[in-house]
Amino acid sequence: MSSVEATTDTRTVSRWEQLFDRSTRELLVGLLFAAPYLALFTVFLLYPLLKGLYMSLHEWNFLEPSKSTYVGLENYARLLEDPAFWNALWNTLEFVGMTVPLIVGISLVLALGLNKELKGSRVLQFIYFSPYVLTVSVVGIIWAQMFAQGGVGTQYLGWLFEGTPLNSKFWAMPAIVVTTVWWQAGFYFAVLLAARQNVPERLYEAARLDGAGPWRMFRDITLPHMKNALLFVVIASSIFQFQVFGQPYLMTKGGPVGSTETLVYYLYELGFQTRELGFGAAVGYTLLVILVGVSALNYVLVGTNDE
Amino acid sequence: MSNADTTQSLTDRLTDRDTQYRIALYAVMYGLAVVFFIPYWRMFQLSVTPMSVLSQGGFNWIPPELTFAVWQRYLVEEPIIYQWAFNTLTIASITTFLVLLVDSMIAFSITRLDWPGQGAILAVIMASFMIPGYVNIIPLYTLINDLGLMNSYWAIILPFAAGPLGVFLLVQFFRDIPEELEEAARLDGFSSLRIYARIILPLSTPILTALGLFVFIWSWNQFLWPLIVLNDDALYTLPIGVVTLRDVNALAPNVIMTSLALASLPLFIVFLLFQDKLISSVQMQAGTG
């Protein structure tokens, strides 16, 4: 059996070798292995990316795309004049600005605390990390209940607002921030815990012999050694939180009076409720430019820090 | 006398800085755990509280009466949740398999084969890290519509299968597999396909498991995209299904919370079984693991 297989093998290989020289063969085999990924990448990423740019320059007709009219940069001009866009941008920045520092702070406390040997640390780790495996709809609906009439948040913090936080222009966004921190902090906690565990313990022993207190050890040893992991947490969570959608969609529908409408929510409404696809594509592109800018800025900052 | 000694040493210990520090540490860590646990407790508590208690309003931590009627209803009488779980499981499994297959193939091609242009292709893939999935949804929606894939599993599986993360992780891992193994195999007349399937893949089980687990959970939990491309009850995934249940049962928190608990259960079990693997897969992404 195996000898038959071997002969067939040799024959195919030799014919294959006659047809192409070595480097062509390597190229063909290489492309063959790369092809499935590249096909998906081209069709579902590169093509929509170009099509989005094209759509954003048109008044797009969804049912009959051939009837779309070219409008140049009009969609972008309209975007810059749309107060709803500026409102969504401002709300998103407000959300990111509150969420990211809280996530960094809480996940750092969790990681540093759990790095000490505690009784029950496995159970603690399970509790902190577990919200991360929940889908946003479960998270959003549970917390909408927590902040509804008769929910925990409203019961104990009710003196802060009239009615419920989700009906308050001022408190709706903080409520969404709390929800998000509960959902996401565990993920970054896991990242920071590993980073903390990678700091060599002998550095702390040496510092203790020098009489350094906990604050000095934190500032001079822990922070510098965890710098890259902390940067990762800041960058990754900023980019992720910038695309917040599910929490406002489920908890406030963007309200009250647009106070929790974020950029992706705004994009969703244009695309899938009012069906202004050309204008929506322009919003998508603007969002893309903002996020690429944020990423590029981060890479530059991280790059210069490494030198 | 001896009693006084013990008391003395106990006060000594309580005033000792290290001990105070440990007490504070336990208080903070367990206090946060309690806070983190409250939403879970409320979900469970409300799911077993009878409507008669809920409709009175008021607040309590422990329900005065218990009932598992709603659990029974969704587990036995109205099995729509099973249908959604089946849809979600099918989509997440196919997505995971597809991602592992195409990512490992291209990573193999880039690291273990030698052909012109592979560096440029890797650079383009890595650059796509900067393009967040959501910014593309409008053109992607028209594409899925043109392909006639609306309301199908494929509408959810295909669009985000070619992501950069898996390629990034696998390229790094494959690069570190020693050349010697492969050279010996080539001398034995192994084809590239056999080297990929018999040598590289088996050696990469740990990273493939970690990546697979991550992709599975990510796919299972997708929300915005399925919300856009699915509009048929029978095809809903769990994340979308629970939202429709909430909308029709707005006045029955016990129904809502039961459906949320049921929808969360599968991944909770996965997490219980693979806690360490999952946490290390998170750490791997940040390069800290």
Automatic annotation (TrEMBL), chain B:
Membrane topology: Multi-pass membrane protein
One Pfam family here: BPD_transp_1
Location in or out of the cell: Cell membrane
CDD domains: TM_PBP2
SUPFAM superfamilies registered for this protein in UniProt: MetI-like
Family, per entry: Belongs to the binding-protein-dependent transport system permease family.
Protein name as catalogued: Carbohydrate ABC transporter permease
Source species: Haloarcula rubra
Upper lineage: Archaea, Methanobacteriati, Methanobacteriota, Stenosarchaea group, Halobacteria
